[in-house]
Amino acid sequence: MGKVLGDVLGYAAGVLVSPLPIIAMILVLATPRGRLSGSVFAIGWLVGLSGLGAVMLAVGGSEGASGHGQPATWVGGLKLGLGVLLALFGVRLWHRRPRDVSQARLPKWMAAIDSFTPVKIFGLALLLSAANIKNATFTIAASASISSSGIPVGQQIGALAVFVVIASLGILAPLAVFLIAGERARTTLDGWKNWAAQHNIAVMAVLCFVIGLKLLGDGIAILTG
């Protein structure tokens, strides 16, 4: 269990450092019904990560580990493929980053968040968690590590829960600050939003490339072990 949690925490940290979802949460909190909308966004995010992770655990099932307690060959192939995808994605993002961070621009859809209904906010959270290429890749990789560990199902569910909680701290922190401090939190949250907006692409590029290399190494180790 300890080894599995060690692997999972690395992937959870990759999801945690997600500037775009953090910015989206701060913008949602700035809407007229910030408390309700922020809570809906958080629930959607948790459902997205948990749902994708649960599906991957179910897919892995008893085939996750080989007869000798080692990860099955498909797990190595999956990690290898995810590693290549993430590393290439990181390189692409790095080349697309703005040379002058003051010129960084947020996606146009963020300007419409003020008019989003709770249903749209829930859907947005699902997309940013389970359909985002970086977060989905990290979640799939974490679930593959859990399912290939050979630990009992109850412990697998516990490890997935730890992943989801740690991975969600980035968007839960602004919500907690807002719920505790209310309007007084505006200045703090605006500062977080501005920093995240300026450094979003560079942070994601480095993170994707580094963890992509780790996945590559893990996949090669499994396939040649």
Q: Topology, please?
A:
Blueprint (H helix, E strand, L loop, with lengths): L1 H15 L2 H11 L4 H27 L12 H24 L21 H13 L2 H15 L5 H15 L1 H13 L4 H39 L1
Helix pairs in contact: 1-6, 1-7, 2-3, 2-8, 2-9, 3-5, 3-6, 3-7, 3-8, 4-6, 4-9, 6-7
Brief overview, please?
This protein has 225 residues and is mainly alpha-helical. The protein has helices at 2-16, 19-29, 34-60, 73-96, 118-130, 133-147, 153-167, 169-181, 186-224.
Explained architecture:
By secondary structure, this protein is mostly helical. Helix content is 76%, strand content 0%. The chain has helices spanning 2-16, 19-29, 34-60, 73-96, 118-130, 133-147, 153-167, 169-181, 186-224. The longest helix has 39 residues, at 186-224. It is globular. It starts with a helix and ends with a helix. The model has no long low-confidence stretch (mean pLDDT 85).
Structural class: mainly alpha
Q: Strand count, sense and closure of the main sheet?
A: none
The percentage of residues in β strands lies in under 5%
Helix content: over 70%
Mean model confidence by pLDDT: 85
Distance between the termini: 21 Å
